[in-house]
Amino acid sequence: MNTSIVGKQFELTESIKNYVDSAFETLSKYNLDIISGRAIISADEKQGKKGFDVDFAINLAHKDTIVIRQKDKDLYAAIDLAVERASKVLRRHHDKLTTHKNKDDEKASLNQVSEELVEGVDEVIPTELELYKPLEIEEAIEKLKASGAQFYVFNDIDAKMRVIYKRNDGKFGLY
């Protein structure tokens, strides 16, 4: 993992750099593809009060960048809080990847079940429906014509599940 530590309006010491490096190392325990980590530490003085801003930017492979901003009076406390928040985000992502079944495993199990249940039918191929985008009826007709299938299942603009099908006389029917 590439790490960069930048101090704005603030002189970075070796102990602060080592502390931030060790903080980034603790984030590698989630076994995610962390490409790079960037820490920007800046001194902030408003209304006579001193404080520190710590910004973490963590780049994950095949995922968006995680950006965490933390403010505190104590620099080390701000770093600790930012690492805790980053750890929480990375743990959620890691748990999501490890606890949810892989889609390929689900498809393989669907194929096995369908082959066991239906022995008299030539072939049953389960497919996933693309129901996430509502379509106009005209768009559904165009998709049905383009696919060459007998029917097409879609959600209309009113979020109702609809089925459009080809009739024997060449026209289209709608449920």
UniProtKB/TrEMBL annotation:
<dbReference type="GO" id="GO:0022627">
    <property type="term" value="C:cytosolic small ribosomal subunit"/>
</dbReference>
<comment type="subunit">
    <text>Associates exclusively with 100S ribosomes, which are dimers of 70S ribosomes.</text>
</comment>
<protein>
    <recommendedName>
        <fullName>Ribosome hibernation promoting factor</fullName>
    </recommendedName>
</protein>
<dbReference type="GO" id="GO:0045900">
    <property type="term" value="P:negative regulation of translational elongation"/>
</dbReference>
<dbReference type="InterPro" id="IPR038416">
    <property type="entry name" value="Ribosom_S30AE_C_sf"/>
</dbReference>
<dbReference type="Pfam" id="PF16321">
    <property type="entry name" value="Ribosom_S30AE_C"/>
</dbReference>
<dbReference type="InterPro" id="IPR003489">
    <property type="entry name" value="RHF/RaiA"/>
</dbReference>
<dbReference type="Pfam" id="PF02482">
    <property type="entry name" value="Ribosomal_S30AE"/>
</dbReference>
<dbReference type="InterPro" id="IPR032528">
    <property type="entry name" value="Ribosom_S30AE_C"/>
</dbReference>
<keyword id="KW-0810">Translation regulation</keyword>
<feature type="domain" description="Sigma 54 modulation/S30EA ribosomal protein C-terminal">
    <location>
        <begin position="122"/>
        <end position="174"/>
    </location>
</feature>
<dbReference type="InterPro" id="IPR036567">
    <property type="entry name" value="RHF-like"/>
</dbReference>
<dbReference type="InterPro" id="IPR050574">
    <property type="entry name" value="HPF/YfiA_ribosome-assoc"/>
</dbReference>
<dbReference type="GO" id="GO:0043024">
    <property type="term" value="F:ribosomal small subunit binding"/>
</dbReference>
